[in-house]
Amino acid sequence: MKRKMNDYDPVKHLKNEKVITEFINAFIEEAPELLPEALSIVAKAKGITELSKETGLTRQTLYAALGDNGNPTFSTINKILNSFNIKLKATLKTI
Description:
Helices cover 55% and strands 0% of the residues. By secondary structure, the protein is mainly alpha-helical. It has one domain (15-83).
């Protein structure tokens, strides 16, 4: 049976903080508007219940913020990133 691209599940590969950091950075650099979707994927890798405990956000808040129509606040994004020991860093744009 031939594999399709949509058979690929990135959650299976997000097993450590270094890989998760690289995954998040790729979204920030290439498609920052999709950061909530990237966070949703890493949230699934950790587990929503565990993420809820670590961030202090309810599971419902996480599902709403990271869902298809979600629009997470900076505070929510920061709490999620902190749970993976990731911090945002501003850098100068290269031309």
